[in-house]
Each structure stands twice: as structure tokens, then as C-alpha cells.
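Task 17 of the worksheet. Students: predict the tertiary structure of the chain below and write it out as C-alpha cells. Keep your answer in the requested format; marks are given for formatting as well as content.
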Amino acid sequence: MDVSGAGGWFLGHNRLVTSDERLSRAEQVDAATPASRNRVVDFLRAAAITVVVLGHWTIVAVDDTGIHPHGVLDAAPWTHPLTWVFQVMPIFFLVGGYSNGLSWRSARRKQIGYGEWLRTRLRRLGIPLVSLLLLWLVICVIGWFAGATPATLQLASQMAMIPTWFLAAYLMVIVVAPGCLVLWERFGWWSILAGVLLAGAVDAVSIGLDQPLLGYPNYLLVWAAFHQFGFAWLDGRLAGLGKRIGLMIVGAVGLGLLVGLGPYPVSMITAGTDEISNSSPTRVTMAFLGMLQAGLALLVEKPLERLLRRPRLWFVAVVVNQRIMTWFLWHLTAMVGLTHLLLAVGGFGLHLQPLSAVWWATRPVWCLVLLGITALFVLVFGRFENARPDDRPAPAPWRPVLAAICVIAGLAVMAPAGIVDDSGVHWVWPVLPVLGLAVFGVLRLPIARVSRS
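Model answer:
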């Protein structure tokens, strides 16, 4: 998820227009927006995070027996085709490619090195993550010594960490984004085709040998290849109705063939009833899903541009983007916390049978309550998205790269497994990302500031 610059320009330019009391808040934001900014990029990012949050709150079934991670998908196969809409991670990589391409080219013009560029990226993504990891480590330690069952703590922490699997994959792509941009500038569409073909070969080996671990390279291969469609969008290589319809058709036909004739399931979100997952590990199907979604999104780019000239709609997109990492990271913590609170008071409100008519009718209320709780988390932890400008000397490139590896490694373990198992609390995994960010200079430690002064 590329949140770099999303809303940050407003924080810096808002003072230029606040003196005009005749302007509403939304009009101030609209006036402060640079004419060159692609508002559709920010809108798609905000819309995608909204779909992710509402999708998680809906497909995870909660009743008076606890949390069922794949509850709706397992009990209602008719929902599986809907995941072609609700699995919107490709949209994040599309807008990420656009933003990363823009950012790295700007860095090259300003002669900003890779180390400084990557450190800036890691600060924007990593600093908001620290509070989530440390809080859940504390929760698990307290729960363990208070006598909570390992299974309960494992499921709770695993559910809360679900958003981090995407962050780990996205960080991998950010690390290689400058190199991918070089490939795109030199080889164009062939660089994307090569990535997709290589991902297909990885799938063939992984699925053929029934070894999911062999499919893990596709977390990088699939998303790095698809990320380059963002470069194509940035460079105008996807301009025109024909190209966008063509991209949509390639995605739809490719995805249809892989699902219809191949071994891949219909659901683009992991379901407990599927022998193969399209998302864990990432499969080549996700690249074709991304082409389908990107084609559809870009088909409506012009109408969206006109709509986003309306100050109120643009203001909503800006507000969501200013706190997008916090919304994303904490929305499942809100659900886990509310569920366990209700279970502690006898399961109040959780006695409805999942997928019943009454259960579906109450989903809007459920989502509104969770929205309010998540908003409280945003108020408390959202400040970490406004990291102070980093005026330190540029680091050696290996330092932010190792910091990124520490973050990716920790998240890669916690996202599918949580922090606890029968043997105890595995504190090393939530600590590793924080330690990596601190030791390799991404976090600005107070002791370092004192020593410099």
C-alpha cells in the first residue's frame, strides 16, 4: 500500500488557504491540491481500503462460539465469485506502481540515492506498524500469564495480524521497485510478460509437487510483475479505450481459463474448503485478477477525475488517505477486541446464526459499531502516520534493505500463525521488525537525537 504523499501535501499546504474564511474545509483542501496530482490514484487507494475493511468484517463469521476466519466462504460457496470484487489487493499494487514510479523518478532528478529513498518509504510504512506489534505482544504476554488458552491467543493474534501479510509483500516490491522501473523503461511490456510467465512456472512446480512453500517466491514475482502496470499507467502506455478494454479482456480470459481448466479455485480469498489458495501463497491468478480490475478501474478514470473535482468527495478521499495505514492495520484488532468483550458478557449480540436472514440484516449495524471502534484506534494511533521530516544523512543502502528484511521476516511468520502456540509466546517475531527498524536507522531513537544535539 503506497501511502507516501497521500494527504501529506495537504498538511504542508493547508496554511496557504486557511486564512480565507469564506472557504469551507473541503474547498480549502481542493484549493491546496496541486493541479498535477492524479486524484484518481488517491481515490482508488481509499476505495480499495474501504472494500478490504468491510470485506473482512463481513466474511469473518463471529458467533457465540468465537471467531471463524473463513466462516462465510466455507459455509456459502455462492460467495466465492464475489471475491473477484472484494479481493482488491491488485488495486493497491496498481496505484503503488504509479506512486513508486513517480517517487523514484523524482528522487533520481534530485539525485537522492536509493538508501535515502528506501528509508523514507520504510518510515511511512513501518512507523505506524510498531504500535500494533508491541500492543499485541503485550496482550499475548498478559493473556498467557492470566491463563488464556494458547488456541485463543493464537487465533486472536493471527486474526489481528492478517493485514500484515499484504504489508510484507508490498515491502518486498518497494525494495525492488527502482530495479523494476529500469526493466520497464528498457523492456516495456516484455518485462511484465516475463514476470507473469516466471510466476506461472513457480506455480506449476509448487502445485505439481504439492509443496505450497515452493510457491512463496510468487509473493514477489506476481506482485512485482503486476506492480509494473502502475508504471504503464504513469507513462501513458495504458491510455485509450482500446488498451484498457484489452487489458480487462486479457485478465478476464486468463483468469477464466486458469479457474475453469486449471487447478485454481474460484475464490480469490483463502477458503478453508479449497485445496489450493490463490492468495496464500500468491498465485499467478492474482496477476490476471489484477489485469481485470485494472482495466475496469481505468475505464472509468475520466468520469472519476470529473467527480473528484467536487471538493466534498475529494476531501473524503484525502481524509481516508491521511490515516489509511492506521485504518488498515487496526480494523481487525477492533473486531477481535469487540468479539472477546461480547463473549465475556455472555455472547451478547452474537447468538445469531451466521448466514441467516437476520444475521445478514444486522451486518450494517455490526460494521457501523466496528467502524466506531476503529475510529478510536485511528484517533489514538493515527499520529504515527505523520512522521517528522528526516534530516539525517543518507544511509548506506544496505541499512534500509536489512531493516526491510527484518520487517518482512517477522510479518511473514505472524500473518499466518499469530504470536502464540502451545509452547508459549513467540516474542521474537513481533520484536524483529521493531528491532530491525531501530537498529538499521529507520526509526529515529530519542537517544540518537540527544547525542546529535
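Marker's comment: The CA atoms of residues 138 and 427 lie 9 Å apart. The chain has a mean pLDDT of 91.
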